[in-house]
Design brief:
Blueprint: H1 3-14, H2 16-31, H3 39-49, H4 72-75, H5 77-84, H6 88-111, H7 116-127, H8 130-135, H9 141-159, H10 166-180, H11 184-198, H12 218-238, H13 242-246, H14 263-282, H15 306-317, H16 319-322, H17 325-343, H18 357-360, H19 364-380, H20 385-415, E1 417-424, E2 427-434, H21 448-460, H22 462-477, E3 484-488, H23 508-519, E4 525-531, H24 538-550, H25 587-600, H26 605-620, E5 634-640, E6 648-651, H27 654-666, E7 671-674
Parallel strand pairs: 3-6, 3-7, 4-6
Antiparallel strand pairs: 1-2, 4-5
Length: about 675
Amino acid sequence: MSLSFKNTIDCNYRNLPEVFLILFCLFVSVVWQPPVLGLWESSVLFHVFEAEKTWINFLINPRACIGCYEYAALDLSRYVAQLFGLNMFSIRLLPALFGFASLYFLYKLLGLIISRVPALMTTALFAINPIFNIFQAQLNISIVTFFSFIFCVYGFYLVDTNKVNKNRVLIFAIACSIASLHYQIVRYCMISILLFWLSRGYTLKDKYNFNKLWLFQKEKNIYYLYFFLLFFLTLTLFHPLNIFNLINIEFLSPYNAEHARDLKSIFSSIYINLPKIFGLIVGVSAFSGEYSTDVIISMPYKILSLPLFIISIVGLISLPTSMSMRKAFFICMLLFLTIFPISLSLILPNGATTLNPYRVFYVIVPLYILIGVGINYFYKVRNYIFLTFLLFISFLTSQCYINFKEAHRFKEYIANFECAHALIQDVTKYTCKSQNDNVDIQLQSIDHRQLNRIETYENQIIPFWRYAGDLSIKIKEIEHIDSILIIDAPIEQFTYSPNNLMWGGYNLGKLWIALYLATNDIYLNYVTPYPGEGSYNLSQNGFGYLETKLFNYKEKAARRISTHINLPLKLDEVGRDYNLDRKYDTHLSIIKKKIEDKITQKENVLSQYKYKYFYNIFGKLKIFESDSMSEPGSHFNLYSTGIGSSDIYLATTNSEMEYILNQINKHDKPYKIIRI
């Protein structure tokens, strides 16, 4: 056997632990997915798939909220669904990939801090963290933000060393740019990490001597110049106006953000929230729900278990002896930056806190770094190596069992809902009620906001899942479908309220039914009505893209960043159908009317000529073309949940049924209507 061949074999065996870790992480990420949508995931699904036009937008989101739309990382799911069809797998594929990328960079990060074997152990333990599992299994921006946080911390460790080079600075610049786009806590951390890097070269021993700072060393400060050049260039490539949003006060303190602002509420928030956060970290908290799957309805769940908390304390104590004071201080700084901002979560007048798992999620990063340091401490002591492996295998096995048990419990929980049509106040409604209190969601020690979310979930989300399941059984029982099949599912018979604040009056129920049927291998066509008499032409598409990229950056609540994108028509007050009689103004028709009004104003002749000029230009470019998106009115678009043609249609309102029948009658094809 040649020496090179032997080295190759040795190298392959050396990489086996990493291979097993990759397979384990992939297995954990795909072995179980919640069969129903999460509460906020339902809203994101609507924003991603029901907008008529979605232009990929990397604008710094002012509000950075979990239920908003126009996050490029999530909007790409629309294109994934075109490849695989609209189903649970396709909508959750990108979040799963971001989760896997988070695990990869965590392992790489730990590899820069501790030994290889403890890094493998810590990453495996992180992969089975219940909160992480739930977040990577949802179409939600939180997992993307989480990835950007870990990537940013990893980038810092690459450049905060004497071995820094331009390639490492490039990685750090990209990481900071990505972190800038998302949630406020990660923005605080990104800026703090950057400022901490600027202190490179200074030590406490130097006291007031700042000459050793890299900032004042010609051979070193070139890296800072290179970083800022790449950072601003990347942000500008993401969106031309990102620089303006970066220097805006709302970058760190957005309008309508749920955090304390005055001194009194700050102290009140810290006093109430800190004990809750500590309880979640320790793993013993009356504030958290009993089940990890409660996270999908925004209920808190413990971050660590008591054994892992103890190991993290060991890691915290051993920091000074495990690494340099600078690196030890940095880890403690991360812990503070992820705990203190969320302790400022607003306390409402009724005493309820806005603290939620979407904010606590990021504390996991510094905690697992400390857990890695703690495991590394025991691993380095020869007498503790066997005990370390034994405890690792025991905890890994037990936590996997707990996770699988919870997955089974959750499936039982939703399966034990009895659903049927019932007469409620002289109106027929499709209602569901849990038949097994033992698997019901924990209702103790929670405030009324969380209780409302549970009721919303049970009354307005689960019924659609059960209804779609019943429909799929009925469709599969039909032996030969020799004609077009139309599913008549009147939306008004659900207890779902279209005017619920979270849903904003839109017909989300139609999309839920279509998605759940597709998950049961029933692919169909559905229709969505939009404002405007016709669809976008080429010029209007171009104008919409440019407007999205260049002009819409002042939206406070971040729910209408791209106002040129037309969301569907809303249902009327009782949810029976769309109000098609109303002449809905489109974004372009509003612009057109404003310019026409300016032209008619005779007070300013110069202004008249200016707006006449704009009007003529827009007219020649066909942006104001008639019978299109520039005119009030409405039109329908037909969509499919599959990648091929389908002879099954879904109608949830009378107008949708009428449109479908008109399309079928044009081709003179037989059809059959089924209804439960």
